[in-house]
C-alpha cells in the first residue's frame, strides 16, 4: 500500500506479480491498494492494478470505493483508469447496486448520469438497485432512482419480492409510503409463496407499516398465502402482540379459524 500511495509502479508490480501480495487487502480505514493509488493521483499504478490486471484484480477496487462512499476515487477509477463501471461481481451486482445498497446518493447519480449505468439491471437473485436501496431504507436513493431515473418500482426478484415488500420487511415506513403513495404500486402483490407486504410486516412486528398498509391502503387483513395463513396468524406465531391487537381490534381480522391461538380469541372477545 505504501508503494501504491507513493506511486512506485515497479515495486507494486513486483509485490503483486512476483510475490503474489494480496492486492485486495484493506487497511484499517477500508482502503485497498487501488484506492491508495487513486486517492494520491497515481493513475499509472491504479491502471496497472485494474486495467492491465497483471495482479489478478477484479471489480473489487471499484466496489469497495463505492461502498465506502469515496466519490473522488470512484470518479478517478472510472474516468482516468477506464474501469468498467458496468462490470459485475460474483453475485452479479453492479457498482450502481452497491452504491444504492449503501445509500451513496452522489455516486448513484454519477454512475447513472455520467456512466450510463443500468437502473433496472438485476443481480443473479433478481434484485435491482431500487430493491437494494428499499431494503436498506435509503429513501433519497429510492426516490432518485424511481422519480428521476425511471427505475421500475414494481420489479420482482427471483422470489417474487417487490421493493415494497423489502421495505415492509425492514420497517422502512417512509419508503413504504413513498412507493404506495407516490407511485401507486400494488400493495396487494404477493411473492411466490403468496405472501404480501402486510404479512411480511406482521411477521417482523413493524406496527407502523401494518397500520399504513391495512388502515390507509386497505390491504385485506384476512388475505391468505399459499398455506392459507393470514397476517394475524403470522403475527401470533412470532409473538407480535401489538400487531395482533391492531389486526383484531381495528381490522376485524378473522379469529374463527381453529388454528388461531386461544389468547387471540380471548382478546377478540374482550374487545367486542
Can you characterise this structure?
Keywords: ANK repeat, Repeat. InterPro entries: Ankyrin_rpt, Ankyrin_rpt-contain_sf. ANK repeats lie at residues 91-124, 125-158, 159-179. This protein has 272 residues and is mainly alpha-helical. Helix content is 53%, strand content 0%. Helix 15 packs antiparallel against helix 16 (241-249). The model is unreliable at 53-58 (pLDDT under 50).
Query: Can you count the helices?
Result: 17
Q: Based on DSSP secondary structure assignment, what is the total number of beta strands?
A: 0
Q: Which class do the helix and strand fractions yield?
A: mainly alpha
Question: What is the element string, with H for helices and E for strands?
Answer: HHHHHHHHHHHHHHHHH
Which architecture of one domain per CATH? Alpha Horseshoe
Q: CATH homologous superfamily of one domain?
A: Ankyrin repeat-containing domain
What descriptors fit this protein?
Ankyrin_rpt-contain_sf; Serine Threonine Protein Phosphatase 5, Tetratricopeptide repeat; mainly alpha; ANK repeat; 17 helices; Ankyrin_rpt
Topology readout:
Layout: H1 2-6, H2 9-18, H3 33-39, H4 43-52, H5 60-68, H6 71-80, H7 95-101, H8 105-113, H9 129-135, H10 139-148, H11 163-169, H12 173-182, H13 197-204, H14 207-216, H15 231-237, H16 241-249, H17 262-270
Amino acid at each position: 500500500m505504501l508503494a501504491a500511495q507513493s506511486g512506485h509502479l515497479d515495486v507494486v508490480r513486483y509485490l503483486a506479480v512476483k510475490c503474489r501480495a494480496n492486492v485486495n487487502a484493506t487497511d484499517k480505514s477500508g482502503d485497498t491498494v487501488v484506492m491508495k493509488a487513486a486517492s494520491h493521483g497515481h493513475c499509472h499504478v491504479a491502471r496497472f492494478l485494474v486495467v492491465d490486471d497483471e495482479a489478478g484484480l477484479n471489480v473489487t477496487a471499484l466496489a469497495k470505493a463505492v461502498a465506502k462512499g469515496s466519490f473522488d476515487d470512484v470518479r478517478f477509477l472510472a474516468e482516468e483508469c477506464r474501469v468498467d463501471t458496468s462490470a459485475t461481481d460474483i453475485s452479479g451486482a453492479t457498482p450502481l447496486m452497491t452504491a444504492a445498497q449503501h445509500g451513496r446518493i452522489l455516486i448513484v447519480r454519477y454512475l447513472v448520469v455520467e456512466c450510463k449505468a443500468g437502473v433496472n439491471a438485476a443481480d443473479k437473485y433478481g434484485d435491482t438497485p431500487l430493491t437494494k436501496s428499499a431494503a436498506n431504507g435509503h429513501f433519497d436513493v429510492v426516490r432518485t432512482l424511481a422519480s428521476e431515473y425511471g427505475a421500475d418500482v414494481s420489479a420482482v426478484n427471483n422470489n417474487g419480492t417487490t421493493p415494497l415488500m423489502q421495505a415492509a420487511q425492514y420497517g422502512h415506513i417512509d419508503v413504504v409510503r413513498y412507493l404506495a403513495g407516490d407511485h401507486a404500486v400494488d400493495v396487494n402483490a404477493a411473492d411466490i409463496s403468496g405472501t404480501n407486504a402486510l404479512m411480511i410486516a406482521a411477521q417482523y412486528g413493524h406496527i407502523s407499516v401494518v397500520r399504513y398498509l391495512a388502515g390507509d391502503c386497505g390491504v385485506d387483513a384476512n388475505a391468505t398465502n399459499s398455506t392459507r395463513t393470514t397476517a394475524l396468524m403470522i403475527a401470533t406465531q412470532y409473538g407480535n402482540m401489538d400487531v395482533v391487537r391492531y389486526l383484531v381490534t381495528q381490522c376485524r381480522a378473522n379469529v374463527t379459524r381453529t388454528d388461531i391461538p386461544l389468547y387471540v380469541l380471548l382478546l377478540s372477545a374482550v374487545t367486542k
